[in-house]
Amino acid sequence: MITKLFDPISVGPMALANRVVMPAMHLNYTPGGAVSDQVINFYAARARGGAGLIIIGGAEINDEASGIDLMLSIKDDRYIPGLRSFTEAIHREGGKTAVQLYMAGAYSFASLKGLPLLAPSEYMSHFTRTQTTPMTLEDIQRVQNDFAQGARRAKEAGFDAVEVLASAGYLICQFLSPKTNNRTDEYGGPLENRMRFGLETIRRVREVAGPEMAVIVRVAGNDFVPNSHTNQEARLFAAACQEAGADCINVTGGWHESRVPQITMDLPQAGYAYLAGGIKKVVGVPVVACNRINDPFVAEEILTEGIADLVGVARGLITDPEFVKKAKEGRPDEIRKCVACNQRCFDHVFQLRPVGCAINARAGREAETEYQDTSTPKKILVVGAGPAGCEFAITAASRGHQVILCEKTASIGGQVNLFAEATHKYDFRYLLQYYRTVLAKGSVELRTGTEVTPALLAQEKPDLVVVATGAAPFKPPIEAVEAPNVCQAWDVLRGKVRTGENVVIVGGGSVGLETAVFLAKKGTISPAQLYFLTLHQAESPEFLRELMVKGVKTVTVIEMRPRMGQDVGPSTRWVILKELDARGVAMVTRATMKDITPEHVVYTDAQGTDVTVPADTVVLAMGSRPENSLAKELEGAGIEVRVIGDARQVGQVGTAIDEGFNLAREI
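User: That's the sequence. What structure does it adopt?
Assistant: Structure tokens below.
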């Protein structure tokens, strides 16, 4: 039962209808820093869907703040009219909104514009690989004034609140941390001095905000950076923030340079809620728990157990703008949940591309993807119930077409079924749960265990056949891969083949690396065993880690290209490489396979030397090819056919969903 999530709450002078906060995210929707129709349409849909508070930004407060032209700006009065248009749009939908005041400090790319990289002290920024410029006392006063002026503009633009960014390793964090602050004046040294810059900034923002506007502070509950702050120091800072005038503490985890995953699916659901819980113990203002909360039942438990007063749902609201509405109406199973793949959100941020969503084809394209009921209903038979086929079927049926969705196996999902379980990418199951629910409640006729044959087509007489039969693993046409100890990665992940003690994987793309993790885990202790042994202190922490990461197989990955995981996004690639290294997987790049025998593999390395590696089993992970033989057969018979997803061209899940949605919207 979800009830607490919908209780109203006051944050300073601001009254919220529920406990769901959409935290600030870089979206790259604001070229030149100005509010665009795209950003208004995107957030208006989330306000209409019921989000209690929407925080936009970060909004750069001065020229040195970011160095990126795509970021929202609040550094000049000329931006106020656009910001006012934004707040009016959110208020028309019944929502409340705040703007995050952003100053990156050593994380800025201001040097690209010939500006100094302002920071507390001089050091090489781990994020930008650029030398910083220590801030003078005059710089400190100027930047604090820039924060205050940002708050003034926010107030004039009609925002209900401002958020001071003091998390993720940005400027205020850099003053707080002994790792980046080695000043000897009143802004350095003991924690009391290192907090000074942030607290003075908050007081100045509070003074400008006045009693009519709420002040929120976004803090790092733990820096997850060696020799920096833990939750204990974060508690002290949060309590001081309240004394300085903060009406709410918004808690996240880590810095951008942290080597602990913050947002990938490796982090368990609500994995950092405990950080908010620690801060809630020492403050008397509302506390927001964040990171990986995409399920209303998880959010409800955080609130009912008193861990936090509000929950931050960021990517969950990108994926489904009606997250709150559906939960409130008793339809939580219809929520299209974020799967934390990062493919079109954080990866796009790093690539300076507009943010989208692999699971929601409309995210960031709300206006241009509107569709109406069809005036010419068709009978459509869809072949294949993977993401492309399911998305097409649901969208086409919602427009009024008669849709029959056929899947030759017993369940929907295609490759998602394979990888979600075998590689422990469990969040992808949410996509399948969504499709199952919506297909069952909608008007699509789903037929599993049904192969499309000429007889079926003759019986149904569809106006259109949409082929979404997916892909098949690629097998190079060379004699060596016919050896009995050679198999496909897909068959390994399906559990169709047993592998030996020494395994060589040919192909270091995403499939090869995930297969390597899958095999390297064999023989390691389970999470339940780890919990039991840790609880009872049965083994030393060092031995427990060894049991956790060292399995019974020796795994080697051979890749022809210069980098492993070139098809893996930048926000997740480092995580899987870190795990492979921890598990002792050998990774060889610039290597060309030369020969395979029942006992070993021979490859040629980057220096042209032949290297022999023991191999009881050789696993091919050399990519996929479209499986569209049915489409060619049907086209030869004169039937109108459209091909989508991997059956047309092998790509990521987001491409398949896009193609299914776009075709259904157009026909």
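The chain is about 35% helix and 20% strand.
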